[in-house]
Amino acid sequence: MSDRLTVRKTYKLYIGGAFPRSESGRSYPVTDGKGRFVANASQASRKDVRDAVVAARKAFGGWSGRTAYNRAQILYRVAEMLEGRRDQFVDEVRHTGASKTQAAAEVDAAIDRWVWYAGWADKISAVAGAANPVSGPFFNFSTPEPTGVVGIVAPDSPLLGLVSVVAPAIVTGNTAVVVASEPAPLAAVTLAEVLATSDLPGGVVNVLTGHRAELAPWLASHMDVNAVDLTGVPDGDVAGLQDKAAENLKRVFRAAGDWAGDPGTARMTAFLEVKTVWHTVGV
Question: Is the predicted pLDDT of residue 256 greater than 70, yes or no?
Fold first, then answer.
């Protein structure tokens, strides 16, 4: 009988394509559905939020400048890798108290949703854009463009909720700083490992774990964040974060609970800016 000790996994942050510990050196215990210890997760700080925003801004130009078809290819590759690590995700979702059947259903739904959003990468511009009728010798086009850096407070659904808020933000060319579920962050870190070993450039998605009440205000008030998704924020905290977001006229999106139903296009169009271009008709 082997007396070998199991190598326990260290759940760290994901910033700029790397896995640093929190600069504060803090961590917090993650427990399962029965209150039993599962792992320690890094407890991110204000400085980690700033570092993540810097990484997201640096990655924005390259990611938004890729063709929509190429973004679709990269996101589909992520789905392939999610499928390959399905059993690991099922185990991590089960830590929340879900049965094996429930956990498997959530993981399968999350993978399918990621694929669904990936397929929209080269189609959303046709839906959200338009060729506008004008009077005169001009062409007039409205084309959607990514907003920029999107701060996201994810819901507590460990994987499906996370995918439902991250995928629509990045598929259109935005970059993201995500505050993962506070009680169930493990699947988020594993998703980050998938992203790090896929073709997704570092900095496109940055994952922070820790206390939502500590991190969300710094994300909402950060002057280099262009939009925030407050889906995972409790109702009583939304107004205060909206006030902070107003300091630099951030877009604010929140439709609590909507991620569980049919995804639709609302989450993608929420983080798009529409540019209208006039062009003279050639003679």
Answer: no
pLDDT at 260: 76
Which three-class secondary structure state does DSSP give residue 186? helix
What whole-number distance in Å separates Cα of residue 48 and Cα of residue 16? 11
CA distance 160 to 123: 23
Could you read off the pLDDT of 67-118 as tens digits, one per residue?
A: 999 999 999 999 999 999 999 999 999 988 888 999 999 999 999 999 999 9
Q: Which of 263, 254, 269 is nearest to 117 (CA)?
A: 263
What does each C-alpha distance from 213 to 13, 179, 216, 264 come to in angstroms? 17, 10, 6, 29
Residue type, 112: D
Q: What residue segments make up the domains of the chain, in order of their start?
A: 27-31+48-280
Specify the residue for token string 């694929």.
115
Q: Measuring CA to CA, which residue among 171, 187, 179, 164 is closest to residue 211?
A: 179
Tell me the HSE value of 120 on the side-chain side, using a 13 A CA sphere.
23
Q: How far is CA 61 from CA 145, 146, 149, 227, in A?
A: 12, 10, 10, 16
The DSSP 8-state label assigned to residue 246 in this structure reads G
Is residue 25 over pLDDT 60? yes
Residues listed for the chain: 283
CATH superfamily of 27-31+48-280: Aldehyde Dehydrogenase; Chain A, domain 1 (3.40.605.10)
Task: Please give the residue that has the higher pLDDT: either 194 or 281.
Answer: 194
What is the H or E stretch that residue 80 is in? helix 68-84
Q: Which carries the bigger pLDDT value, residue 18 or residue 280?
A: 18
Which one is predicted more confidently, 283 or 81? 81
CA nearest 178: which of 52, 269, 263? 52
Cα(85)–Cα(79) distance, integer angstroms: 10
Query: 32 to each of 94, 98, 235, how far by Cα in Å?
Result: 8, 10, 25
